[in-house]
Amino acid sequence: MRRSLFRKYFLVLFAAVVFPMAASGISDMWFSYVDQRAILSALLRSEATSAADKIESFLDGIKIPLGSTIPEDVSANAGVKQLRLLFLRVMHQVPGILSISFVDGAGAERLHVSRTGSNRTEGGADRSGDPAVVGARTAKVWYGPVIYRQGSEPSVTMAMANYDDTVLENTIIAEISLKPIWLIVSEIRVGRSGQALVVDQTGHLIAHPAISKVMQGADEKAALALRGLRDAIAAAGGTAIANRNAENERVVTASAPVAAAGWTVFVEQSQAEAFAPLYASLWRTGGLFLAATVLAAVLAYWLARRMSGPIRLLEEGALKIGAGQFDHRINIVTGDELERLAARFNEMAEELAISRDRAERMTRLKRFLAPQVAELVEKAGDERILAGQRAEVVAVFCDLRGFTAFSAHAAPEDIMQLLREYYAALGAIITRYEVTLTSFSADGLMILVNAPVPCEEPALHALKMAVDMQEAVQGLISGWRQRGYQIGFGMGLAMGWATVGRIGYEARVDYTAIGNVVNLASRLCSSAEDRQILIDYSVARHLHDKIPIVDLGTRQLKGLDGLIRVFNVETKDRPDLAPNPNGVPRKARL
Questions:
Q1: Phi and psi (nearest 5°) for 463?
Q2: Which residue ranges does UniProt annotate as crossing the membrane (predicted)?
């Protein structure tokens, strides 16, 4: 009884239920992870943004009253005294301000009031190059880097300048304690282990729930880790990421910028706590999946033993067929799709053998025949027309004038580029006219018309092809001469009987013609000047005035006995009529 391979697989996979279990578990776990990650990211970002807003408000609470103390001009001691009273009042209102300095438009320090140090009036110190003065005059409000007073307590310098562009700018410089920010971050809690911290542009701690970490001062290793964490969050588009914090603990972290000062607020939570529900779900899913995997392994082992034999035969057969042994046959009797697959392999091997034989024949034919002619011979299935025989042919020779001199001085890449353009132009025409290219050497080509496949009016067919070739190459020559190449192109055609057929040896075979007509066409080509297409009388008499030609009279051609009557074909590029003895061009009379 024939049994379906599909039915066998269906029953086994249905019993095993591995795929639905795995797909369900993985999809549930993935969507749970995505949802949990989105909720966690939103929560952490919300806390970080809230803390950043509070810090912005803290800085604004300093910036607004401090900005109100900037005088437009202080020209007398009375003005300085009045300014000192303003500074003291602001420091009383804002306990976080540790000191305030006033620098006039000339860059001289006029007043300095401090909680922890000595006060100075009309000190006159030149602070025009102070980064705070330069920064405030550029950005109007400037925040300096965080510094640690006595190596522990963090503070920051804020500088503000007036906005009058018509006079030199007066500048107020204040040193601000950052201890109040500790109260902001210490209030943030996310779960049991979540906490917040603030760092400056360089990654150094400004505030942390554990105040001792801030009091320890600058920690370069921790700053480097925090800068890397900030860059990683920015690369993730601002969403929370799972990474290691400065203490090398695995956490999920989000951040928010304190734009005014260039600081960053981080809010983090331990990965173990953040993803605890996911880990519990993962253990449950893993247990179910393990049980399903054991069941699937038992069933797969039983099925593999039943299928390993036929599959091995198919594998061996595929290797042999792939190696070119198309006579190999695969013998499988299982009564299911495997047997039918083996039959298809055997049919494929037969088709591949036929295709290989055809490809080899086509490769041999296309060495000397146009692709269309090669297809015709191959479809006929008879290569006897390529055997040696007598045929009336038109032999066509062509080559470039001045090529030898050009190749003696030109660079090899220029020579090869010229030949590529030359053969591309001629090859397209030869293929279109479905003639036989017997050989080419350097710049010379030999073409046969009317062999091995006959054509109507071979002389006219060959001459039309020659005119197209001359026009195509003359178009190339125009471009070559613009590049400084002194190149011409001449052609010779002769018609007559010749022995045609294949010649060569087992590994290489060419199709060619042997006879006086070949020699005559070659000599006519050698005698042709640029733009000339020289033909013999046999070609000329078959044209019947369909193509205008000019009788050039008789010539003695090298290697040939007697005088040969030569004609030149008129082309639209240049008539090139030869003069008669009376000095008047003459048409040919046949």
A1: -70, -35
A2: 282-304
